[in-house]
Amino acid sequence: MRKQRGLSIFVLLVFIFLCLPLIIVTVTAFGENPSIQFPIEGFTFDWFKKVFEISSFIDSFFLSLQISFLATILALAVGVPAAYALARYRTPKTAWLKSFFLSPTVIPGVVVGYALFQFIVVQLNLPIYQGLLLGHFLISLPYVIRVVGSSLEQLDFSIEEVAWTLGCTKVKAFIRVVLPNITSGIFASFMLAFINSFNNIPVSQFLSGPGVSTLPTTLMNYIEYNYDPTVSALSVLLMLGTIVLMYLIEKTLGLASVA
Amino acid sequence: MSFVDLEDIRVSYDGKNNILKDLNLSIEEGQLVSLLGPSGCGKTTTLRVIAGLIEPNDGAFKVEGANLTKVPVHKRNFGMVFQSYALFPHLTIKENVGFGLKLRKEPKDIIHKKVMEMLEVTGLADFADRYPKQLSGGQRQRVALARALVIEPKLLLLDEPLSNLDAKLRINMRLEIKKIQQRLGITSVFVTHDQEECFSISDKVAVMNQGVIEQFDSPEVIYNYPKTEFVARFIGFENFFDLTLVDDQTYAAPDGSLFKTKRAWESTKKVGTIRPEDITLLEEQSEQTVNTLPGEVKVRTFLGKSYQYEVETPLGKILVQDGHSTAYAAGDKVSLYIPEEKLILV
Amino acid sequence: MSKKTSYLILAPGLVLLLFFLILPLITIIWPTFYNGGITFDAYLSFFQDTYNVNILYRTIKISLMVTFVSIIFGVPTAYFIANSPKKWRGLLMSLTLFPLLTNSVVRSFAWINILGRNGIINSLLLATGLISEPITLLYTEFAIIIGSFYLFLPVMIISLVGTFENIDTEIMEAAETLGANRLMAFIKVILPLSIPGIIVGSILVFTGTLTAYTTPQLLGGNRNMMMSTFLYQNAMALGDWQSASVIALIMIVTTMLVMKGFNVLASRLDKRGEEYA
């Protein structure tokens, strides 16, 4: 295709717009000045050290990992069979049921967080941790239903039927024949749900308390009171994590399936 | 100077491999010229150079003497029919056909008149207000044609327009296209890989292979007098064997057999070939005469109106198609008669 | 699969959703309608307070603006990406995807650096002498708009790339052979066919901006609240559950209305595609 100068320049500017802010953050992470500066004076890794010294960052990081991992696993455990049931047994109600399972996406995150906080913490008096876990489960479930659901739609179920004729029970056939053919969908939804849960703020904001706080929440609270390059450093670390994850996804699935 | 001239066209995407090189083609006004060849031979690339969708790295494209090489697509006024028809899904048939006229800012009543006329001619008047997805393949093809013709283009370009149609429809449509082309007298370039389709409607055919035009002649000439081995193979010649000139019109094969032929272009050509159906099978002969070969039938296949034989001869495997009532069986010893008016050198 | 089995499999999910999403929602929303008897007082008083209405108005206004600007910038970019050679496409998509996968706190923080009083824009303007005092860019509606735009532009781009890829290139070429230059062919042929994709992208961007929390909180502050930060303030800072619940329902209803509205728009535009010829 012949090149369009105008369009190319326009798109270049758009990408500069997308990348520049994050590049600026990265640069400020290395400045020596205790307040954020750009361009930076000096060069140091001190702020990165400081990140690891702040216990609330470390604790909340592990909490986030734990919550997101558990919530995603739970979402898979509930969601994969559900997606299978929705794909295999079609009735006029199926579309409605699917929308029901996807309903958390229609409810604003802050509302989900608030509702759960009210219900679980205030009314049921359960610990915040449980509320947090449930909240993340709720927002992860739709990813599983949607992504695994579309994998299943592309699956030719005759392979399951052949397995039955060859002597497999229905459960065995599901495990041996259906699951292996939707692994990429399962993995993709795991990655998407995990990343989304890890990065989530609205739900986590409501469901945090002493000792129970996800990393994004901790970071956000930190910014409100401290505006220093520690934030930049932590941001850089998070971005590195994202890059690693993207690399992993590309190597196993290809980013195309995630986008 | 012809109506359309392609001069020394070179097209290369990566700078190293040439899709087209030193391509020259001249088309007279009012002719329907076909570009024929296997996939990858460059015929579609050539058509797209003419359309302006590809700019050649070297060379010139001229129409009536004017150099149009740098002129952008939308200014060339060439109607094009794509293989996929490329109808606009969001417009009705009437709007599809009128698209080009609307761009040319013709008055609404004129557009309506021209579009309806064209729809009548192509038998689509009943579908004017329908959408492409409501039409069959054959109907969509006619819409694509109508849309390209209504703008009264200087050239009509067709990129394998019939490939997606079933056999019977293809035969009907190609006649339609020819009729319309002749009636309008519009110079046309037609790309196809189907030899029969091409020969039935073209005034001239350019047989292409790997970016080069191997022969550019009328269908009759190509059919009877292929110039190169590639062209011969493409149009159905089999059985290629080396020949060396012995004396005036007599050639010798590697095993010593002698052949006369009336169809040697130049005496430098050294490969003889003949169509399987032009060889006659005879009973085994005691003596080998000129233009015969001894052989043994290896495989016999029944084709319906004739048998196809694979015969092992001193020159290798020869394919013969014989409609004789006498059927030979595998293992039979036979003689192959290769008439001098059917043997051709490429 | 029998009906019974399928419901058995769906049961855990259904129960969890019913119990931990629907039920909590009902428990917070029900009190807003019931005060001895069914009443709409809570909502009436909400809408009577101009402070509240301003916040709602601001939220919708900003969401519309962000959506509009995302379309303007997203459409050409997505088109460019969809038509790029394969080796570039992967890189460009990764560059688009990367901000999306980066935490929104980080992304909003990036704009604090740029818009703050000591931020880059002010430093540049002061250094070049164009201004003598730093201008307030942070904690304004503008900050929220640009922060949200930064957040959601990739969403629009990615939505649209798929749409453009599905449009047959030959259609564009056909339009060109009929006399349309690149721009005309794009406007008259490609754009109408990409409307469904634009609608999908718009729904995501609009509802995203409408309900986002981080960006308004970090870039808007308490002077420029959006519905989401307003809800948080009422619930957690003021302890005003009633107001918080009222806001919650209004947010849900607004989101649903918008989605419905866009979908209706989409189906209408699909039928009357010729409007865009």
H-E string of chain B: EEEHEEEHHHEHEHEEHHEEEEEEEEEEEE
**Total domain count of chain A:** 2
**Assigned CATH architecture of the largest domain in chain A:** Orthogonal Bundle
Low-confidence stretches of chain A: none
Label the overall shape of chain B. elongated
Mean pLDDT of chain A: 87
* Percent of sequence in beta strands of chain B: 25-35%
Distance between the termini of chain B: 30 Å
Helix-strand category of chain A: mainly alpha
Average pLDDT of chain B works out at 89
What is the terminal-to-terminal distance of chain A? 25 Å
Q: Which shape of chain A, going by the Cα principal axes?
A: globular
Structural class of chain B: alpha+beta
Reported for the largest beta sheet of chain A, the result is:
none
Brief account:
Chain A has helices at 5-28, 46-53, 55-88, 92-101, 109-123, 128-153, 158-165, 170-181, 183-199, 202-206, 215-225, 229-252. Chain A has 2 domains: 1-44 and 227-246, no CATH class; 55-226, MetI-like (MetI-like fold, Orthogonal Bundle).
Q: What does the model show?
A:
- The complex is a heterotrimer of chains A (259), B (346) and C (277).
- Chain A contains 12 helices and no strands.
- With 259 residues, chain A is mainly α.
- Chain A folds into 2 domains: 1-44 and 227-246, no CATH class; 55-226, MetI-like (MetI-like fold, Orthogonal Bundle), CATH 1.10.3720.10.
- Chain A is globular.
- Chain B has 346 residues and is α+β, with helices and mostly antiparallel strands.
- Helix content of chain B is 24%, strand content 34%.
- Chain B has helices spanning 43-51, 93-103, 108-121, 137-149, 167-184, 195-201, 219-224, 229-234, and strands spanning 4-12, 18-27, 32-36, 58-63, 66-67, 78-81, 155-159, 187-192, 204-209, 212-217, 238-242, 244-247, 250-252, 258-260, 263-264, 271-274, 280-283, 292-302, 307-313, 316-322, 333-337, 344-345.
- In chain B, the strands form 5 sheets. In chain B, strands 6-7-8-3-9-10 form a 6-stranded mixed beta sheet, with helices on both faces. Chain B has a 5-stranded antiparallel beta sheet with strand order 17-21-18-19-20, with no helix packed on it. A 4-stranded antiparallel beta sheet of chain B has the order 2-1-4-5, covered by helices on one side.
- In chain B, strand 18 (292-302) and strand 19 (307-313) form a beta hairpin.
- The N and C termini of chain C lie far apart (48 Å).
- The longest helix of chain C has 33 residues, at 50-82.
- Chain C has 277 residues and is an all-alpha fold.
- Chain C is globular and about 70 Å long.
- The interface between A and C is large, with 80 and 79 residues.
